[in-house]
Amino acid sequence: MEEKVNSTGGIKRWSVYCRNMKLAKKMLLLYLAFTSLACCIAVGALQISLTIYDEKLYEKSLQELEFFTKEISRGLEDAEEMSYALITNQEVQSLLTEASEVEYLSQSYAFQMNSLRRLMQMELNFHPTVKNVIYTDAKQVSFTVGTYCGTIEESLQKELLDGFREKRGGYVFRNPKAEYPYLLSGRDILEIENTSLDYLGSFLLTVDVAGIIDSQESSLEAEHAALFVYSGDGMIYQGKAEVPPLPAVGEKQGYQIQKYHGQKYFMCYLQSAETGWMYVNSFPYSDIFGQIMQVRYGLVLSFLLVFGAAILVMRRVLRTVLKPLEHLTQSMQIVETGDFQTAREVLHTEERTDEIGVLAQEFQLMLLEIEKLIHENYEKQLLLKDTKYRMLQAQINPHFLYNTLNTIHWMIRAKRNDDAGKMIMELGSLLRASFAREPYTTVEEELNSLKSYLTIQQYRYQKRAIFKVETKGEPGPYLVPRMILQPLVENSILYGMEQSLNVCEISVTAIEEREYVLLGVEDTGVGMNQEELDAVRNLAFVPKGHGIGLKNIRERLRITYEDSEFCIDSAPGEGTRIQIRIPKKEMRENVSIADRG
Predict the structure, then answer these.
(1) Residue 414 has what pLDDT?
(2) Which of 24, 297, 308, 451 places its Cα 20 to 30 Å from the Cα of 190?
(3) Distance in angstroms (rounded) separating the CA atoms of residues 412 and 409
(4) Could you give phi then psi for residue 202, rounded to 5 degrees?
């Protein structure tokens, strides 16, 4: 019992001695302890980083492969979109219908074919991934528009045309092969103006897949990387590299290390879900080892530099500043950032008998009271702002959904299944954007959502309206409140187009300026007189139905930005123009904007 009392007393005396020890000695002990801990952490971090390096390398290579799959898929989608645009083009339909009714090789027939060539060339200019377009019809007429890509074997062309017949206007494509290293695709042209679906001809498109890959292969990070693309039909792309043993087609994704010609290679592979093509990124394993050594030496050198710098700094601090005072100063600096919890943790919690200890205790009590008051007011402001935003967001018009579904219903009744399918896809994209929980998006995503809305409206209003979306500069990555443009276009349709007897043109623009992004919606509708314009500018105008009013849009801009402009100009018979100028804000600044009161 006496030994236990002596032990407890010894611990207390040692504790008191350490507490009252000169601050310079305390700092030295703390420095040695923290230096030892830092050494352990650094060594552990080095070992962990080397352990996970291969996995990170695989993830990086997989990201590169995903980039290539997206680029090629985008090229294939471009070809499909071009073929659909050609066969549904009203002028193409008219030309081919008239050509089928006139005498073969007559002057009128030649005129129709020349006009068709012009339309094919115009469409080809908007689709750079498509090298050429071949037109054929039942009269054995065949001509090519675009870049010459070699001769297609007659049997191969016949196989493709037979595939077009089976699809009845559907899209068909064939993988590149050794005998013809281009992707071939296309579809039949059926007469749709009178819904007879008579055969008018075929469009065969040539896509240079190897050219798409060549233009992007330099982006591979590894110095001696090689890219291979192949399918069950054979090799699609191999560049100038030799082809090592490749993973079998059918394996979804992964990586492996294999020996080839006496050298180890790291292979990362990924199979495209859209085309079934296998993508392999291969490079010598020695490149990886060299990178590992660079990482190792870099970490060791960084640690030595940090350790040496810490010694110099600590020697200076020991001569000039006491450690508790440094803690107090650090805590005050952290308070400036608003992190009161970390600021309190920096301070010493044990009781001290010197002046700095008392000062630290008083400062900690002050922090507790300030933090309590700030949190009470901050939570109230957040609740108020969130409620206000939800009320604004809840005003989005549901009547558009009813009209769209009704249009799809009549399209299906009229056997316009392709158009109905297109409207359903666009409606899905629009609803996905409308139901997003995030209140902010990028200008690019906002324009993509708006294009879906305009596509649906184009189906509904046909020739009554002309919709245009244009961008200048690169406004796409900048932040904008979600669903800010669609209500303006909806107002142009409701108050400009539907009240006009003429064809109404509605233009949407997004322009990148030096410090701002300028968004505009302009229509050629009936316009407003001065009295109506003043009512709209003063927010005295009450919108029809349940749509989003201009007051709603201005309020959302005010909540999001400290500096923004909202201008409306109109005149009777000259249409209406609305412009919104907002500061450039990246998406990573979303949190700071959302937290602003």
Answers:
(1) 80
(2) 451
(3) 5
(4) -140, 145
